[in-house]
């Protein structure tokens, strides 16, 4: 234990922000006038800190065994300094461990399990999410077309970036898998004139979007369904499909099947935009240092991240051709800090909302978990432990000779110029 404490004192001295640690016996380590203060109530949490298991320290904070003082940006800077190992380093990559992981992934991603997992996270409280998301409640990586954009502007830029990449045209049948609170679904319908269908497993999100559709008078060409992607029935395939922030919930063992299902929902020649979080490491099944376990327990049960190379392999197995990939990792770091800062500015109201719904014990734990989750993920994207990829794929139609792009086998243009070309005036957007 003495060696661990010496190691901890050395790490504290090397931290870019000053840190004070109070041990269970009242002894204090680190700076007197510290930016960040951690008060430990048990030895087990203290050992986790000394060993660099910052995810386990996070769990102790959520459970009330460690008290914190200081802002989230300073706390994350200190956490990074206390790490002992690269959290993306591949551990447990033996063949038998991969077999066990696959079996667990299969069991964890049945239709019933996925519905419970999604509702655990997204049905927490609409009022809580509204405190720190933009007015459209877009709960995915924004696109900072210019660095000075406000969050709401960057989210609208992201919605438009996706619509442009899909080359949406008036009257096309568009499917949004995991449509959230309807941001992309409604943006595509209102600005690109598509016939739009969204699906979700969140009861709260379903009810919210249904009300928006009614309020906007879009019931004739926009619809929301409460259904798993594997159980969606349609009389004819869609021209374009988007899946934003959803495939992280699919599971490694189900990924090729997911892309096969999307392939079957997409017309020959059509385009898919798959936007989601990917692993920073090639071999790690989850983030190390206890961070993956923290997210599984408190935030996203059943969530699994794959390296972009694995995703593209499974995409090809599913019969889809990758035609364009863009890494938006730094955009997500900026997005998450915007969310974190917005939540930190509303802690009193966030506490009131969650305590009223769940009681002080459960509500307090949820708030502490989300404070750590948002800031911790911002740190993870900054450091490259995780990434965010937009993967545009096509379902080849087998037609080598017809059309203006012979040999293309899809509607994807020969160059990316169409993504960045000037848009028509706003009044014409719905008639393009």
Automatic annotation (TrEMBL):
<dbReference type="GO" id="GO:0008168">
    <property type="term" value="F:methyltransferase activity"/>
</dbReference>
<dbReference type="InterPro" id="IPR029063">
    <property type="entry name" value="SAM-dependent_MTases_sf"/>
</dbReference>
<feature type="active site">
    <location>
        <position position="377"/>
    </location>
</feature>
<keyword id="KW-0808">Transferase</keyword>
<keyword id="KW-0443">Lipid metabolism</keyword>
<dbReference type="GO" id="GO:0032259">
    <property type="term" value="P:methylation"/>
</dbReference>
<comment type="similarity">
    <text>Belongs to the CFA/CMAS family.</text>
</comment>
<dbReference type="Pfam" id="PF02353">
    <property type="entry name" value="CMAS"/>
</dbReference>
<protein>
    <submittedName>
        <fullName>Class I SAM-dependent methyltransferase</fullName>
    </submittedName>
</protein>
<keyword id="KW-0949">S-adenosyl-L-methionine</keyword>
<dbReference type="GO" id="GO:0008610">
    <property type="term" value="P:lipid biosynthetic process"/>
</dbReference>
<dbReference type="InterPro" id="IPR050723">
    <property type="entry name" value="CFA/CMAS"/>
</dbReference>
<keyword id="KW-0489">Methyltransferase</keyword>
<dbReference type="InterPro" id="IPR003333">
    <property type="entry name" value="CMAS"/>
</dbReference>
């Amino acid at each position: 234990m003495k060696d661990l404490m010496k190691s901890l004192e050395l790490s504290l001295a090397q931290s870019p922000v000053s840190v004070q640690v109070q041990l269970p016996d009242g002894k204090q380590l680190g700076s007197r006038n510290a930016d960040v203060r951690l008060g430990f109530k048990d030895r087990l949490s203290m050992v986790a800190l000394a060993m660099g298991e910052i995810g386990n320290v996070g769990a102790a904070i959520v459970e009330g065994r460690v008290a914190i003082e200081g802002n989230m940006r300073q706390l994350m800077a200190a956490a990074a300094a206390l790490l002992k190992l690269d959290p993306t380093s591949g551990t447990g990559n033996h063949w038998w461990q991969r077999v066990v992981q696959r079996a667990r992934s299969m069991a964890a991603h049945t239709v019933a399990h996925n519905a419970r997992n999604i509702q655990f996270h997204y049905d927490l409280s609409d009022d809580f999410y509204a405190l720190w998301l933009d007015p459209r409640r877009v709960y995915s990586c924004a696109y900072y077309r210019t660095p000075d954009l406000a969050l709401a502007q960057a989210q609208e830029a992201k919605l438009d970036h996706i619509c442009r990449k899909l080359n949406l045209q008036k009257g096309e049948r568009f499917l949004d898998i995991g449509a959230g609170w309807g941001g992309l679904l409604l943006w595509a319908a209102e600005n690109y004139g598509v016939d739009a269908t969204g699906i979700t497993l969140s009861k709260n999100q379903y009810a919210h979007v249904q009300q928006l559709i009614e309020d906007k008078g879009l019931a004739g060409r926009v619809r929301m369904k409460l259904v798993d992607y594997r159980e969606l029935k349609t009389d004819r395939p869609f021209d374009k499909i988007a899946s934003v922030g959803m495939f992280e919930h699919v599971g490694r063992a189900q990924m090729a099947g997911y892309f096969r299902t999307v392939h079957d929902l997409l017309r020959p020649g059509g385009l898919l935009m798959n936007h989601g979080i990917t692993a920073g490491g090639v071999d790690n099944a989850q983030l190390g240092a206890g961070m993956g376990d923290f997210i599984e327990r408190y935030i996203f049960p059943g969530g699994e991240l794959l390296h972009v190379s694995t995703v593209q392999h499974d995409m090809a197995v599913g019969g889809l051709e990758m035609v364009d990939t863009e890494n938006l990792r730094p955009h997500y770091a900026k997005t998450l800090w915007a969310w974190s800062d917005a939540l930190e500015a509303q802690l009193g109201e966030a506490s009131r909302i969650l305590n009223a719904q769940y009681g002080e014990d459960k509500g307090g734990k949820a708030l502490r978990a989300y404070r750590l989750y948002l800031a911790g993920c911002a740190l993870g994207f900054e450091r490259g432990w995780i990434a965010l990829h937009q993967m545009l794929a096509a379902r080849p139609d087998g037609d080598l000779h017809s059309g203006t792009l012979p040999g293309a086998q899809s509607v994807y243009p020969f160059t990316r110029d169409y993504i960045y070309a000037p848009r028509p005036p706003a009044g014409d957007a719905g008639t393009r």
